[in-house]
Design brief:
The protein has 142 residues and is of the alpha/beta class. The chain is built from five helices and five strands. Helix content is 43%, strand content 18%. It starts with a strand and ends in a 5-residue tail after the last helix. The relative contact order is 0.17.
Length: 142
């Protein structure tokens, strides 16, 4: 199975670290980068209208909470309230470690909440574990 993944992340360095880990996986079909919540929601809307493989509904969304325009909280809420998108697993990956953010993420429907590690080696290890779990162990909706 080829997995399509959307990374909603405004920091290019963080996006590159995440996508670097994902690109090492054989069954990744497409990685799409959305730089803010608006871009992510537009991408999801376009997926409904397109039959191109690179615009297929994602199997997984990695979502930063702190983004410009429309932040991760608003975006998460909109996706989880949308009948066609609410089954897409969403992993919140953010620098925040505030209990209020963790609580809010799960209340809004996040499937996981991960604090971004600060060290490169820890970040890489976290991404590898995340991928192993979400792409090899969990059964995802098609």
């Amino acid at each position: 199975k080829n997995f399509n993944i959307v990374i909603a992340e405004d920091d290019e360095d963080d996006y590159l670290l995440i996508s670097e880990a994902f690109n090492k996986i054989d069954n990744i079909g497409c990685i799409h980068w959305a730089k803010d919540g608006e871009e992510l929601l537009n991408y999801l809307d376009n997926c409904e209208k397109s039959d191109k493989a690179q615009e297929k509904k994602p199997n997984l969304i990695i979502l930063d909470f702190n983004m410009p325009k429309k932040d991760g909280r608003e975006t998460l809420e909109e996706i989880k309230n949308h009948p066609k998108h609410k089954t897409i697993p969403i992993i919140v990956l953010t620098t925040s470690q505030a209990n209020s953010d963790i609580e809010q993420a799960y209340q809004l429907g996040a499937n996981s909440f991960i604090q971004k590690p600060f060290k490169y080696v820890d970040f890489k290890s976290t991404m590898e574990t995340l991928l192993k779990y979400w792409l090899n162990i969990v059964k995802l909706p098609s």
